[in-house]
Amino acid sequence: MTQAVPTKTLKIDFVSDVVCPWCVVGLGGLETALAKLEGEGIGADIAFQPFELNPQIAPEGENIVEHIGRKYGATPEQSAANRAMIRERAADAWKDLKSSISGGSGFDMRMTDDSRIWNTFDAHRLLHWAHETAPDKQKALKQALFTAHFTENRNLTDAGVLTMAAEAAGLDRAEAGEVLASGRYAQDVRGAEDLWRSRGITSVPAVVVEGKYLISGGQPAAAFEEALRKIAAEV
Fold first, then answer.
1. pLDDT given for residue 5 in this prediction
2. How confident is the model over 41-82, as pLDDT tens digits?
3. Mean pLDDT score of the chain, rounded to an integer?
4. CA within 20 to 30 Å of 54's CA: 158, 186, 221, 229, which one?
5. CB burial class (10 A; 0-12, 13-18, 19+) of residue 116?
6. For residue range 160-211, what is the model confidence (pLDDT) as tens digits?
7. Which 3 state secondary structure label does DSSP give 86?
8. Can you tell me whether residue 120 is helix, strand or coil?
9. Cα–Cα distances in Å, from 197 out to 107, 193, 203, 215?
């Protein structure tokens, strides 16, 4: 009789923002790596932690080309070239995953010169709510928010957009609306953001494994696979 391979479950905190394109790439790489490691008895319990790239952005958002130009000094041509490169990376990162956001052909990133960057605080409140009340659905909500922003170019400060994403993730839309209207979890999100900043997280995605191993950036699946295999052997 063949003995079953024992499963080692790694605790992973995925610190990220829902308007961060490299976070889409990084999550795809991480999920692809975990799918490959499953056969080796290595699994993961992923919690999505808040990080706001633009906490001071105005309620009406900002045009993406103007935003990238102001923040990084990029020309419109450089901005367009960067979007094209990330579009390819995102599609590739998700192409082998069976996911509601990949459609079997990779993540579909459709940002244009007319797209906007939004304040994401309310989105993070919903993600915190999901983790507190239905942790098994938090990842689906994260993916639905990625789709709303990068594929559908929707306004992430609009309660209707956010509650629709919650519903797509299998969460109760009416309760999601109540969370948004009440301001619930605002202090929890602020506290979590402060915590991760105090731990030295200044850019995302930041993948923190077992509370002490850091994998930074939108790494390809092979990099995640190698790092997670080494970590699993140590813990």
1. 57
2. 999 999 999 999 999 998 899 999 999 999 999 999 999 999
3. 94
4. 221
5. buried
6. 999 999 999 999 999 999 999 999 999 999 999 999 999 999 999 999 999 9
7. helix
8. coil
9. 29, 6, 9, 16
Which among 17, 65, 75 is positioned nearest to 203, based on CA atoms?
17
CA distance 224 to 235: 16
Taking a C-beta distance cutoff of 8 angstroms, is the pair 118, 59 a contact?
A: no
What contacts 24+ positions apart, CB below 8 Å, involve 76-83?
Answer: 76/113, 79/113, 80/113, 83/21, 83/109, 83/111
Maximum distance among all alpha carbons in the chain? 64
Q: Give the domains, in start order, of the chain with CATH numbers.
A: 8-58+119-228 (3.40.30.10)
CB 68 within 8 A of CB 79: yes
Please give the model's pTM, rounded to 2 decimal places: 0.94
Q: Which residues of 65-76 are buried (b: 16+ CB within 10 A; e: fewer)?
A: bebbeeeeebee
Reading phi first (left if > 0) and then psi (alpha if -120 to 50, else beta), residue 217 is in left
Residue type, 44: A
